[in-house]
Design a protein that fits this description.
The complex is a heterodimer of chains A (225) and B (489). Chain A is an alpha/beta fold and 225 residues long. Chain A is elongated, with a radius of gyration of 19 Å. Chain A has a five-stranded parallel β-sheet, sandwiched between helices. In chain A, strands 6-7-8-9 form a four-stranded antiparallel β-sheet, covered by helices on one side. Chain A has eight helices and twelve strands. Chain A folds into two domains: 118 residues, 3-Layer(aba) Sandwich (Rossmann fold); 95 residues, Arc Repressor Mutant, subunit A, CATH 1.10.10. Chain B is of the alpha+beta class and 489 residues long. Chain B is built from ten helices and twelve strands. Chain B is rod-shaped, with a radius of gyration of 49 Å. Chain B starts with 12 loop residues before the first helix and ends in a 5-residue tail after the last helix. Classes of the chains: A alpha/beta (225), B alpha+beta (489).
């Protein structure tokens, strides 16, 4: 996957480049709009990360300009602004996504994956999900582990489904709040942890290999190996 | 808001102004007409007096020269009758019978010598004697049997007899009557026309003022781009619009400045925060031992709290200046609260708290989703952080006529009394609170940015209560409003 990173803060650019490369992307970086434009036209990129506050050109204008030049790759917009302006919303509706700074790396990676998947939709959605001995029937909204039915509330099922779809990858608390409850909020209480604790109590019963792991300071991961 | 359609209201200024102006106008024109009437009346009187004086002189002359024989009566009578045919102001359609003029000659002793005219000669003489006429001045005389008075002139003939010539004022009055009727009609027409003109112009003027008022009231803190409508003319109303627009320019520019400052502050702080967080995360993935990881984890937690504090702090600052930018979308508060309760219930239960929810069902408002989400999360966080175990949190969603109230009540220890007056100030927090003291200030800020209010109190039965009231109809930029408004050039 070829990725173009447009970010003028070199500190941020360098750690993003390293992390993205670790995650398996081939990263080209640009620190201003002009370089970004040249790179985008020359190289065929699968996805772009564009910071809104560039020194020479407004990020949105750059994206719109690249679109006019025929660059069709999806864009993840990075914004240090507090309010999401209408043009960003417009791009979001057009299939792009935005992330406000500061962000968790896991969330950045998840949004990139989402954007790539949205652009290359898989044929038929699976009706069953399987992670190790955990099995989810998406039509009947039932989950079982090692053949034993789990008694989950509808909300817990949605949470587990989200974990299974991201099995093996880190999910943060704000990602869970966004995807499962549909809110971009940052409560300063441990609301999400309690949900995970309850879910774990049902999924990882005594004597079984624990599937839901806590990564302190980062989030959670559902083991797939 | 005032009516937008052109239906005049009885208490509207246009009506009041028109009615007063019309009254003044009617009074003025009435006075003019009264003077005109008096002038014409005097003129007619003078003309008939002049005629009477002339004729009576001619008659006196004729009477003097005519020999006092048997023919005397016929000659003078014919001359008198002839005079009666040349009456001024006489209507043509009048019948041939002449009852508008009489001629009377009396002898020395007051005996009637000659009488020409309709009616009774003795009655007429009686009336003349009763009205003590002045010589050489025509006088009004009321004769029994006639509705209108006669104007009578007299002359002394040399032989001692006296000649009276009377002219009925009937024709004169008829002329004046028809004149009055015409004046009245003309007056009514002028007054009506004047009223119409005054009403039309004031309403036009005032409708412009009303458009300005409507437009100005619609320009809220979320919509400072629009301007009140202006006109090409250079009158007081146009000046008002221009002044308002200049004021809005200044407000917009200071708002813009505030936004620039807060945005720059946010940007300048967030960029290093992003870099720090990224580096911390990378070192966390490199840290293998738990002991190494622990300080990094807590540093990331602190960083996230700092970020949230920064966001809320700037939001509160902007809301205090009425400058918080909103992106309104329809939100179902009932549904949102159910989702929130679902999210918070496990944490509450873990701390031994119960939630009860009372709602009359779906209730939709136009609000900024992100802010409302964070505000409600703050309300829950507030309960979670401050309530001891075994308390009950009662959440009520009440719909009033034009507002919706969201009430969080608990049966805990309540707010300490000395804190209540300043609860919504920044950095006010309980002694054992571990928050940054922005929670309630943020709730207040969001409520106010949406045109609502937030109130905190202790319940009479014990426990704290926070009430957030939000208007059902958003004050500001609807579609119809933006169609009416056009930016000032």
């Amino acid at each position: 996957m070829r990725l173009l990173l447009v970010e003028d803060e070199l500190d941020i650019q360098s750690f993003l480049k390293r992390s993205l490369e670790e995650a398996g992307y081939q990263v080209e970086a640009a620190a201003n709009g002009k370089t970004a434009e040249q790179l985008a036209i020359d190289g065929a990129f699968d996805i772009l990360i564009v910071d809104l506050g560039l020194p020479d050109v407004d990020g949105i204008s750059l994206i719109l300009h690249l679109r006019q030049l025929g660059v069709g790759a999806p864009v993840l917009i990075l914004s240090a602004r507090r309010s999401v302006d209408d043009r960003v919303r417009g791009l979001e509706q057009g299939g792009d996504d935005y992330l406000t700074k500061p962000f968790a790396l896991a969330e950045l990676l998840a949004r990139l994956r989402n954007l790539l998947r949205r652009n290359n939709p898989p044929g038929n959605e699976a009706t069953r999900l399987r992670v190790l001995d955990l099995e989810l029937d998406l039509l009947r909204r039932e989950a079982s582990r090692s053949g034993i039915m789990l008694q989950l509330t509808p909300q817990e099922f949605v949470l587990l489904e989200y974990f299974c779809r991201n099995a093996g990858r880190v999910v943060t608390r704000s990602m869970i709040l966004d995807q499962v409850w549909g809110m971009r909020i940052h409560p300063d209480t441990n609301v999400v942890d309690v949900h995970i604790y309850r879910l774990r109590g049902k999924v990882d019963t005594v004597g079984q290999q624990p599937l839901i792991r806590t990564l302190r300071g980062v989030g959670y991961v559902l083991k797939d190996r | 808001m005032s009516s937008k359609t052109g239906k005049p209201k009885l208490h509207s200024a246009a009506w009041r102004i028109s009615i007063w102006a019309t009254l003044a106008f009617a009074f003025g024109t009435m006075i003019v007409f009264v003077f005109l009437h008096r002038f014409i009346e005097d003129d007619i009187q003078q003309r008939s007096d002049a005629w009477l004086a002339g004729e009576v002189e001619v008659l006196g002359d004729v009477a003097e020269r005519t020999p006092k024989d048997a023919l005397y009566g016929r000659v003078v009578g014919e001359v008198a009758e002839l005079a009666g045919k040349e009456v001024p102001n006489k209507l043509r359609s009048e019948s041939t019978s002449n009852d508008s003029v009489f001629f009377l000659q009396t002898g020395n002793t007051g005996v009637i010598q000659l009488w020409v005219g309709a009616g009774s000669d003795t009655e007429t003489l009686k009336a003349i004697e009763e009205s003590n006429m002045l010589p050489d001045r025509p006088t009004d005389v009321r004769v029994k049997g006639f509705g209108v008075p006669f104007r009578v002139a007299s002359i002394q003939v040399d032989d001692g007899s006296r000649i009276y010539l009377g002219l009925s004022e009937r024709d004169e009055l008829r002329v004046l009557n028809s004149l009055r009727l015409r004046f009245l009609l003309l007056w009514l027409l002028i007054v009506l026309f004047g009223f119409a003109i005054v009403f039309y112009t004031t309403r036009r003027m005032l409708s412009h003022v009303r458009r300005i008022t409507d437009a100005a009231s619609r320009i809220g803190h979320s919509d400072l781009n629009t301007r009140v409508p202006t006109t090409q003319r250079n009158d007081e109303v146009a000046q008002l619009a221009l002044t308002l627009n200049r004021m809005l320019d200044r407000i917009e520019s200071s708002m813009h400045q505030l936004h620039t400052i807060t945005d720059a502050l946010a940007h300048d702080l967030r960029s290093p925060l992003t870099a720090i967080r990224g580096k911390l995360e990378m070192s966390l993935s490199a840290a293998t031992h738990g002991e190494q990881a622990e300080p990094i984890v807590s540093a990331i937690d602190e960083l996230d709290r700092l970020t949230e504090f920064l966001n809320q702090s700037l939001d509160v600052a902007e809301a205090r200046a009425d400058a918080l930018r909103l992106t309104r979308t329809p939100i179902d508060l009932d549904e949102l609260l159910r989702v929130m309760i679902d999210l918070y219930e496990p944490s509450m239960a873990e701390r031994g708290l119960q939630i009860r929810f009372h709602s009359a069902g779906s209730i939709s408002i136009e609000a900024d989703a992100a802010l409302i989400h964070r505000m409600i999360a703050n309300l829950f966080d507030n309960e979670l952080k401050h309530l001891p175990a075994a308390c009950i949190v009662t959440i009520r969603l009440l719909t009033e006529e034009d507002a919706v109230s969201l009430i969080f009540a608990d049966d805990g220890p309540g707010f300490s009394p000395e804190m209540i007056p300043q609860l919504f100030e920044r950095r006010v927090k309980g002694k054992d609170s571990n928050g940054h003291g922005l929670g309630l200030a943020f709730i207040d800020a969001v409520a106010r940015a949406h045109g609502g209010t937030a109130a905190a109190s202790n319940r009479s039965t014990g426990g704290a209560q926070i009430t957030v009231t939000l208007p059902l109809v958003s004050s500001g930029n609807g579609d119809s409003a933006s169609m009416l408004l056009h930016a000032a050039s």
